[in-house]
Every structure is written in structure tokens, then in C-alpha cells.
Write a structure and sequence with these properties.
Elements lengths: L1 H17 L3 E2 L12 E14 L6 E14 L4 E14 L14 E15 L5 E9 L2 E10 L5 E10 L13 E10 L2 E8 H4 L12 E10 L1
Antiparallel strand pairs: 1-2, 2-3, 2-11, 3-4, 4-5, 5-6, 6-7, 7-8, 8-9, 9-10, 10-11
């Protein structure tokens, strides 16, 4: 297990420096923190902005997250996501600069901390994560056995060429349904792009929908 943890966090560090320009990263955990080691894995359909050509890709991704709860108030986590997206070529008669289609890889990772204040039926929490973006993720868990998590994510870009993202970053919104103790269903959307359809990188908002499972609980 110790070798697995070292290899995993090495991959996370690589993903932080080599990741995609922007995406809605899925989260399969809860606002409520449980002490001890935990591991979540999931698969998702997603759209993301490739760092290769700054255009929107549509495809799939797999994610793995390892976390450790020191107590019910503080948790450390590391995650990595790998995937593949496709960009269809644009017809030459419908584009000033015809887009070359093809497949592009997705590499996404981050290291962070989460704090929570558990109450009887709700759990407010805040997750702070550093990857290619610095993100703040306020969220609230609902239920004694948390069955629903609602949250938002504000991101500030740490990497990426100037002119490839809006000043200050993006705002994402998400919800997570936990129908069973080990299963989670995630849905998230980039709100910045949703309310700004004229955003120059892409004409559609970034979206991620996925299913996760707790491998270690």
C-alpha cells in the first residue's frame, strides 16, 4: 500500500504540471469527512479544453483519488484523471481558420485539503486544491448519511498562455447524488461559459457527468 501511495502521488505531481488547460473535474467524495484512508474511482463523459490547441474536446475520462481524514474536521487528498477527447474537423467553407480534427489526451490532477463542520443533517465544507488551477470549492452535504452534495468551484489559473482563458478563471457548479454508501453520481457544468455563450475559446460550456465507487471506505 505504501508503494502504491508513493507512485500515485508522483503521477499527481506530473499531472499538475502537464494537464489540460481547463475542465470540470469530477468529485466522487462527500462534504462529510471520515477519519482514515479512502480511495475513490470513477468514469465520466466530459468536455475539456485541450492544452495542445486550446479547443474543446469531447470524450471520456477515468479518475482516482486517495484521501486521508485526520479527524472529522480535516482531510488531505490527491487525485489524478486520465482520458481522451475528440475534436471534429470544421468544414473549410464554414470557418475562417479551418480546424484540424483528431484525438487529444486529457491529464488532470491536484493536491488539496478539505475542512468540514459536521452537524446533524447538514455538513458545510470547504475544499482547497492546487493543480494547473488554484480552486476553492465550498459545498454542503445533506442528510445524516449524506445522500446529496451541492457545491461550487471557483478557479484561478496558475498555468497557461495568456489569452487562452478569461482573467481570473472560471466558476463551476456541481451536484453529487449518493444513492448507496459506496456509489456516487456526479454532474458539473462550467457556469462562466454557460452564461457567456460568446466566450472565445468554445461556443459550448464544459460539462462532466460521471459515476464513482469507493474502493476503500
Amino acid at each position: 500500500m505504501q508503494k502504491l501511495k508513493k507512485s500515485f502521488f508522483t503521477l499527481v505531481v506530473l499531472a499538475v504540471g502537464m494537464g489540460v488547460l481547463s475542465c470540470v473535474s469530477p468529485f466522487y467524495g462527500t462534504a462529510r469527512i471520515e477519519p482514515g484512508w479512502h480511495m475513490n474511482a470513477g468514469v465520466a463523459a466530459t468536455s475539456f479544453i485541450s492544452s495542445d490547441n486550446y479547443d474543446e474536446c469531447m470524450g471520456g475520462r477515468g479518475d482516482l483519488e486517495i484521501s486521508h481524514g485526520f479527524n472529522q474536521y480535516l482531510q488531505a487528498n490527491g487525485r489524478i484523471g486520465l482520458g481522451l477527447g475528440y475534436i471534429p474537423p470544421s468544414p473549410e467553407d464554414k470557418a475562417v481558420s479551418p480546424r484540424k480534427g483528431g484525438f487529444y489526451p486529457l491529464l488532470d490532477g491536484g493536491l488539496g485539503l478539505q475542512t468540514a463542520y459536521p452537524m446533524e443533517c447538514i455538513t458545510p465544507a470547504l475544499r482547497v486544491e492546487a493543480g494547473q488551477e488554484l480552486s476553492l470549492m465550498p459545498m454542503v452535504g445533506i442528510g445524516r448519511r449524506e445522500w446529496l452534495t451541492l457545491g461550487g468551484e471557483g478557479t484561478y489559473f496558475l498555468f497557461g498562455p495568456e489569452g487562452t482563458h478569461p482573467e481570473g478563471g472560471f466558476l463551476n457548479a456541481f451536484l453529487i447524488v449518493h444513492p448507496y454508501p459506496r456509489w456516487s453520481i456526479f454532474a458539473g457544468v462550467n457556469v462562466t461559459m454557460l452564461f457567456d455563450p460568446g466566450f472565445y475559446i468554445t461556443e459550448y460550456p464544459l460539462v462532466t457527468v460521471g459515476v464513482g465507487y469507493k474502493l476503500i471506505k
